[in-house]
Amino acid sequence: MRPVTIVIACHTPERPVGRAVASVLEGSGEHAEVLVVAHNRPAEEIRGALRPEHRQATRIIEHRDAFRSASGPFNAGIRAATTPFVAIMGSDDELAPGAVASWLTVQERTGAEFVITRLALGRAGRGVPTPAVRMHRGGLVDLARDRLAYRSAPLGLMSRAMLERTGAALVEGATVGGDVGMVTELMATVPTAYDRYGPPYVIGEDAGDRVTYVVRPMTEQLGFFPDLLQAPWAARLSRTARAAIGTKLLRIHVFGAVFYRQDEEIWTAEERESLAAITADVLDRAPSCERPLSRADRRLLDACLDPAVPAAELMAAARDRRRHGRPATLLPRELTRALHREAPLRFMAASLAVQQLPRLRRG
């Protein structure tokens, strides 16, 4: 029996699911079988979107719920798997040839229950520089020291026994962030390794209906924060680990949500109050998480916390923090934090190293 099941969720045959299935069967078929979950669609309709030579080799099950989220079908596929390991995969995405074999090699060497895959965007050569792990680590990785919190989806190899033991699962019905709590829990609480040199998981760029990019009310956009920050496992983490999670939530999710709302009409009094309350809760539950942030980030943070700051100033601060290379984006407000692992200088250097090291090793 092949040791890995790749679970692919698909809600329409118009997605390039045939390409996704082909990448697994043709590039990792020796080690992985494919389970496609037809989300609110007949299984045979999805099967018809597969390449003829792959239709009989692909198991397809149906999952019906009232949500647009992929969390439900992913959970259903994981429950239906019988192999020792599982992995989830978007129907727009691909696995570079040999990816699963590389994950298994890392798992055998380290004993990890979760192996984080390398990511690439659009094609295998365009590496994604997260997580910005330490370069000298060849074994298990650490949530805070290896900046793992910046990985927001549980992509890679997961032990099915571990998932059953921990009960870790995607949040069903969540339109945004339904995977963040699960992946953060795994990286924080179970033995985790990073496949730093292996073939990547390639994120597709040709889907026009990804729900992630839709602008929603702030309470929905960041509605996954409480489930993450208030979870029992999170409360048991060290102060350092909680701060690392908080820094990432601010830098990626809060600041990103503001940046993509460049219209003053969006910023009603209710939205500003929601933004302030959500941001304040992060600071309360992850003490010190703001201290490594750049001066430009802190200016935006101050605006997020104060609904009286004009919307134009809030939006300008979100744009300014992305004008990289200026002192305001390179140095934290507290200069004693300039060399903190989450501060811009070290963070950017580590990100560049992660992006470049695999190609340097091949060279």
TrEMBL record:
<keyword id="KW-0808">Transferase</keyword>
<dbReference type="InterPro" id="IPR029044">
    <property type="entry name" value="Nucleotide-diphossugar_trans"/>
</dbReference>
<feature type="domain" description="Glycosyltransferase 2-like">
    <location>
        <begin position="5"/>
        <end position="133"/>
    </location>
</feature>
<keyword id="KW-0328">Glycosyltransferase</keyword>
<dbReference type="InterPro" id="IPR001173">
    <property type="entry name" value="Glyco_trans_2-like"/>
</dbReference>
<protein>
    <submittedName>
        <fullName>Glycosyltransferase</fullName>
        <ecNumber>2.4.-.-</ecNumber>
    </submittedName>
</protein>
<dbReference type="GO" id="GO:0016757">
    <property type="term" value="F:glycosyltransferase activity"/>
</dbReference>
<dbReference type="Pfam" id="PF00535">
    <property type="entry name" value="Glycos_transf_2"/>
</dbReference>
